[in-house]
Amino acid sequence: MRNLLILAFFSLVWPSQAQETVLFYDEPAAQWEHALPVGNGRLGAMVFGNPAAERIQFNEETLWSGGPYDPVQDGAHAALPEIQRLLFAGEYAKAHDLFGRTMMGIPYEQMKYQPFGDLYLHLPGHEDATDYRRELDLDTGIARTTYAVDGVTYTRDVYASEPDQVIVVHLMASQPGSITFSANMHGIRNTAHSNYGTGYFQMDAIEPNQLRLTGRSSTYLGIEGQMRYEARVDARTDGGQVRADYRTLYVEGANSATLVIAAATNHVNYKDVSANAAGRVAAVLEAVKDRSEPAIRADHLTEHRQWFRRVDLGFVGEPSLKDVPTDERILRLKEGGEDPSLAALYYQFGRYLLIASSRPGTQPANLQGIWQDRANPSWDSKYTININLPMNYWLADSGNLSEMNQPLWMFTQEVAEAGARTAREHWNADGWVLHQNTDLWRSTTPMDGPSWGAWPVGGAWVMTNLYDHYRYTQDREFLEDMYPVLKGQVEFLLDILVEHP
To answer: In the 8-state DSSP scheme, what is residue 438?
Structure first.
């Protein structure tokens, strides 16, 4: 790559002409992985962009299977001397089996991050749309779909507002009275796993202009499903009519329409699920009932851009391909082409995902951030400590998003609290321990199997992330706050070290 000049500004000055912030495509998403993500740290959605049959799959960060539980086996460390003897004797299979019988947590696995639901929009007559474009603007945090039908241009914007704690779907048309559609919500029940049970959801419409989805999380491996959850869709229109009937919302002949999605669970913290999900949703909708869509959008843009616009990265010196669909640009690279500005866009997309899935005061980003659509997701979409959780936060400091480390710090304090009992009962050690995985309930015991679950250095990996945050920021107050947890991790590691015979 010749004559390549890099322009990078870590400031609030915006923008340079080299900056690209838009991913776009010329067809709807054919599968979930192709949809476009929006998020406000707590709520996330994937937008498919189908003109006639839109799907918006949405999640809330605290909807997990099960509920608060303690997987620690009292006195599990009694087998540890024999396991160590077998290891030193080279009898690894016997050590493996003994560890599996005596030192694993109960249950053997952990809980799963769950999808919340889907909002479907059905627009009759929009099957043969033309002039189609689907895009995600990283600078605005808005996923937009535009197309034409019978000479009318339709625009559909979706974004997740942090100030108002809602997901907004805004439909517009170039001619008045052109917005007509029906909408319904669906929950997701886990029926594919024999160890699940007792979870449920139900949907209904509430006159005159709301949809409601309520449910309880699934029981898994004997851990009772204790999560109560609710989502509501509130419809507002400029002109036209809106009505609710059974499980469907109808909008007819509107100039524009706005759907406001609020969702919540009863989660308070990893030990407490005493909140009122319905009350939380009602409070959110009450707070926004008199706020116009332009006002909600303006506050969303201000909040989102305070994070995103801290970095302006551009690569100039080669022709820009910003008018080529993003998927085509990726294929050109695979075929040996050059597209340096795509690298800058990719970097900014990474920052965008962190902003959208981790904010001060939220849970940390799990294995898939906050975006996943399966009741049985890969690796349970948990907090995978041995690489994925640390990797999610690699961009925090270097991407000028240091505040996004706050959820990781909160998480570490909680697993250190839970992990003190695990260290004592499973390793006969002081301090605290975290193994390869954990979940919303901060399980810290070995899990899934000794081959990977018998990995007691997860706490050290997370502390490395946080100590790197101190090294980057030189925040002495943070270092002082971190010291007791750091000390506890060192105490644990010193206690479990044994001399090789």
So the answer is: E
